[in-house]
């Protein structure tokens, strides 16, 4: 079983069930290993909730980051509007887990998936339980035609038309209609279909910039202003359904401060300005943060105040010291992410010890499938059998490599203890 990778070889189901009660020392767990710090997760949940409340925006966190039911439910309990997903498979998982509101941040143009969603929504309406709202995106008239034809022909009838957001993109970006006239044509096609409901506008600014410098922030702001312009144009054309609330959404984990600044003023939950509007961020990486890409680009690093804490760390045992300045550890590309930067050696636990101490002057220079090359000072006190803790970059690919991750009480504790497992559902 995939979850056994994170467990001592002698563990059985009884041992797993008793983790919360026994709280075994982390030092008794095998390597390679990735852990999630409960103290950091709770801090990040509290920090993001407080930030959104101050900024006056809602949150539909992207569930693809963790694909973990417990974390999704904790995000909902912390005030999230719903959960965002990226693929039909992830959408099906969210519906299986009974997530009340789900946003598919993508076009849904596979007929089988469309019929599945319609049937599940109809069943949920009959049972008055489970997922009761699914919202998808569209950036072309062709996508709308496929949805309309499929849903008009299905025998299942959802309790309401499928909500669709018009996606606006940008030159060189990812998906999304490239011009306002093209986006308005999509909006008109949605509004004309009795099987669909024009639910608002959407976009993703993260593909348009990759740093926090002034030029990148300017690019992001300009794009978001165009997204607000699209929302205003759709409303001015009378395309939104009469009397229904709509959504304006953008915002990954890198520029949600700019999103709140530009789009936040559109929020009007009570419809005092004529129509109820919810502005939703879709940030997902905040829940675990990292020690790499997101630590360098997070808006909280630009605006000051409370910061997120990295909750994910890798652990690997030194298995070879073949040269004075080199250590080989037993974790590689199969275990730790490397797409947004190599792991960062941070600390070491000496062989036979439970105490973690800082490690300085060490750098990962290369990774194989199951080994990483760690350059260390020639006189470094690092021996075969010692366990190194690594900071990781990019939560999404970290979680994707593990069917279960060990939860520890606090990575900064002198003697971390394992309190449970986080199981993932990546298919």
From TrEMBL:
Pfam families named among the record's database cross-references: Ala_racemase_N, D-ser_dehydrat
D-serine dehydratase-like domain: residues covered: 311-409
Sorted UniProt keywords: Lyase
MF term (GO), any: lyase activity
Matching SUPFAM superfamilies: PLP-binding barrel
Lyase is among the record's keywords: yes
Listed InterPro entries: Ala_racemase_N (IPR001608), D-amino_acid_metab_enzyme (IPR051466), D-ser_dehydrat-like_dom (IPR026956), D-ser_dehydrat-like_sf (IPR042208), PLP-binding_barrel (IPR029066)
Family label: Belongs to the DSD1 family.
Protein name: Alanine racemase
Source organism (scientific name): Leifsonia poae
């Amino acid at each position: 079983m995939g979850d056994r990778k994170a467990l001592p070889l002698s563990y059985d189901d009884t041992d797993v069930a008793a983790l919360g009660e026994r709280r075994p020392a982390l030092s008794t767990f095998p390597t390679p290993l990735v852990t999630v710090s409960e103290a950091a997760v709770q801090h990040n949940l509290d920090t993001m909730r407080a930030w959104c409340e101050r900024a006056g925006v809602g949150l539909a966190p992207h569930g693809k980051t963790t694909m973990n039911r417990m974390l999704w439910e904790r995000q909902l309990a912390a005030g999230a509007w719903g959960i965002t997903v990226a693929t039909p498979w992830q959408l099906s998982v969210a519906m299986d887990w009974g997530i009340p509101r789900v946003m598919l941040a993508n076009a849904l143009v596979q007929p089988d998936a469309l019929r599945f969603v319609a049937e599940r929504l109809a069943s949920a309406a009959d049972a008055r339980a489970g997922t009761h709202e699914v919202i998808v995106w569209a950036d072309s008239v062709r996508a709308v035609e496929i949805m309309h034809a499929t849903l008009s022909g299905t025998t299942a009838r959802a309790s309401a038309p499928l909500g669709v957001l018009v996606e606006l993109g940008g030159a060189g970006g990812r998906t999304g209609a490239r011009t306002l006239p093209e986006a308005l044509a999509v909006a008109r096609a949605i509004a004309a279909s009795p099987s669909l409901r024009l639910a608002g506008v959407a976009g993703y600014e993260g593909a348009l910039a990759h740093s926090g410098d002034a030029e990148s922030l300017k690019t992001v702001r300009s794009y978001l202003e165009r997204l607000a312009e699209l929302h205003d144009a759709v409303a001015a054309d009378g395309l939104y359904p009469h009397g229904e609330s709509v959504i304006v959404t953008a915002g990954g984990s890198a520029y949600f401060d700019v999103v709140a600044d530009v789009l936040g003023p559109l929020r009007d939950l009570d419809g005092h300005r004529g129509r109820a509007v919810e502005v939703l961020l879709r940030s997902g990486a905040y829940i675990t943060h990292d020690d790499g890409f997101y630590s360098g680009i997070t808006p909280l690093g630009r605006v000051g105040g409370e910061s997120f804490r990295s909750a994910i760390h890798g652990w690997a045992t030194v298995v070879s010291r073949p040269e004075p300045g080199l250590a080989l550890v037993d974790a590689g590309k199969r275990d730790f992410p490397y797409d947004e930067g190599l792991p960062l050696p941070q600390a070491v636990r000496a062989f036979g010890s439970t105490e973690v101490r800082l490690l300085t002057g060490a750098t990962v220079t290369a990774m194989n499938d199951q080994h990483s090359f760690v350059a260390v000072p020639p006189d470094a006190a690092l021996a075969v059998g010692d366990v190194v803790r690594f900071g990781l970059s990019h939560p999404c690919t970290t979680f994707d490599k593990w069917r279960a991750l060990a939860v520890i009480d606090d990575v900064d504790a002198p003697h971390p203890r394992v309190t449970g497992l986080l199981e993932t559902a990546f298919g």
